[in-house]
């Protein structure tokens, strides 16, 4: 009985194994190759009777995509020639019985490819994603042009937006403050509409209370000073644009002739500071009682207050703490003082100036100053939404915003931004504040997609508005 059971089990195993052999996958037959194309990609379709196993790779010099099909056969197929700027042809090669190689020859670099299968009917499909530009241009005023650019790159897609201001246009470029005050924040769109700007971008770095972190000069007056020398944009009375690394120097000369260095303009007063506050800051200094505020009108001290002084219209306040409070302690109401400020002989002639940085291009060459200007990694490193301003050889001013951290646009590194500005024709260019602040407004409409998913309130903006 035991012998009979063993024989029975052996017979069943033989039958099962024979069924496994007969259940082996049927050989796939490559029946037809066809393709479709667009500006973004080329799709090549292999019609088969059964879905085959396959592998794919780029050739060593990246001029071919090689697909190897196993357990596949076909009749001899002619080379498929494509009328496409990226893909040249498709050739099927019988490597050995049951193995075919498809060589897709490329004319230019591609971004990526995706290989997959479809059923009903059965197909193997490869989508070849191209490097391409999709550009839209619009004349938005005399001598004023808007351009949007969508580009597919190996790093991912990029969406860029540019406004080109010709030197002979009916418009001027200038900075504007959020709600006309330093200690405040406002959205770029609102600033553009309020100041009749036909175009605008975000501009300076700023603190949470709206204080400008860097240089800002408006209507010939310095309303914010840089703490260290960083790149700035200057606008002369004739409209000429300057881009350079700028330092601020300020002094107050006391009645005895002593000259005391001013620490800064319109920033929160710190230890041992001598801060200058103007009407652009707020209606009060916001200082505490651990220092002394000297109200100065027409070079004469008109009042002395210990903390949070009112800034009267047309007056300024010198706010001193620590060692500088001691240096000014002899001042009395009625004393004459002389305040001097300079950005250098050339930059003192500017009507407007706005600082940010780092520099991107100098004299038509990439010139990144991230380390020189001591920018932290969140600005200097990695891809991000970016805003930049540049000037061309023939005097056109370019405002540029690039989206980032989103599916439709990966963002740019500072080097990539410099190369893009150079491509647009800039011979000098600088970086402005970026990240969630990056925004462009044209004719009151937000053109880009800020990475926060909404507009961010910022400290100031750079606008293009009709000449007065």
From TrEMBL:
Keyword Transmembrane: no
Residues in Phosphodiester glycosidase domain copies: 303-464
Signal peptide: 1-23
One Pfam entry name: AMIN
Entry keyword set: Signal
PANTHER family the UniProt entry points to: N-ACETYLGLUCOSAMINE-1-PHOSPHODIESTER ALPHA-N-ACETYLGLUCOSAMINIDASE
Protein name: AMIN domain-containing protein
């Amino acid at each position: 009985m035991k012998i009979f059971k063993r024989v029975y089990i052996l017979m069943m195993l033989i039958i099962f194994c024979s069924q496994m052999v007969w259940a082996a996958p049927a050989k796939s037959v490559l029946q037809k190759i066809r393709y479709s194309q667009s500006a973004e990609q080329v799709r090549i379709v292999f019609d088969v009777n059964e879905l085959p196993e396959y592998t794919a790779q780029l050739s060593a010099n990246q001029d071919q995509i090689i697909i190897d099909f196993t357990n596949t056969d076909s009749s001899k197929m002619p080379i498929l020639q494509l009328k496409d700027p990226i893909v040249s042809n498709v050739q099927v090669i019988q490597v050995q019985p049951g193995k075919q190689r498809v060589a897709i020859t490329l004319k230019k670099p591609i971004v990526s490819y995706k290989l997959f299968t479809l059923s009903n009917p059965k197909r193997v499909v490869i989508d070849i994603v191209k490097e391409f530009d999709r550009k839209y241009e619009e004349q938005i005023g005399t001598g004023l042009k808007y351009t949007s650019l969508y580009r597919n790159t190996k790093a991912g897609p990029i969406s860029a937006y540019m406004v080109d201001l010709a030197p002979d246009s009916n418009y001027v470029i200038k900075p504007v403050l959020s709600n006309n005050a330093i200690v405040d924040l406002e959205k770029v769109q609102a600033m553009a509409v309020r100041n009749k700007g036909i175009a605008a971008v975000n501009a300076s770095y700023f603190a949470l209370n709206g204080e400008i972190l860097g240089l800002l000069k408006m209507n010939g007056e310095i309303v914010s000073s840089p703490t260290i020398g960083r790149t700035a944009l200057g606008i002369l009375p004739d409209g000429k644009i300057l881009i350079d690394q700028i330092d601020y120097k300020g002094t107050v000369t006391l009645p005895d002739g002593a000259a005391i260095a001013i620490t800064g303009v319109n920033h929160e007063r710190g230890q041992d500071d001598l801060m200058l506050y103007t009407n652009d800051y707020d209606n009060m200094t916001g200082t505490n009682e651990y220092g002394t505020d000297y109200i100065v009108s027409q070079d004469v001290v008109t009042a002395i207050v210990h903390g949070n002084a009112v800034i009267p219209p047309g007056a300024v306040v010198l706010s001193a703490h620590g060692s500088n409070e001691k240096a000014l302690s002899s001042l009395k109401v009625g004393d004459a003082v002389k305040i001097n400020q300079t950005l250098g002989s050339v930059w003192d002639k500017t009507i407007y100036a706005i600082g940010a940085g780092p520099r991107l291009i100098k004299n038509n060459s990439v010139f990144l100053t991230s380390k020189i200007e001591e920018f932290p990694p969140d600005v200097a490193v990695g891809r991000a939404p970016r805003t930049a301003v540049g000037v061309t050889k023939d005097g056109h001013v370019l405002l540029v915003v690039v989206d980032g951290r989103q599916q439709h646009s990966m963002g740019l590194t500072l080097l990539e931004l410099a190369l893009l500005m150079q491509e647009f024709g800039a011979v000098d260019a600088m970086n402005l504040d970026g990240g969630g602040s990056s925004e462009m407004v044209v004719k009151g409409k937000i053109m880009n997609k800020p990475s926060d998913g909404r507009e961010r309130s910022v400290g100031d903006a750079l606008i293009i508005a009709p000449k007065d």
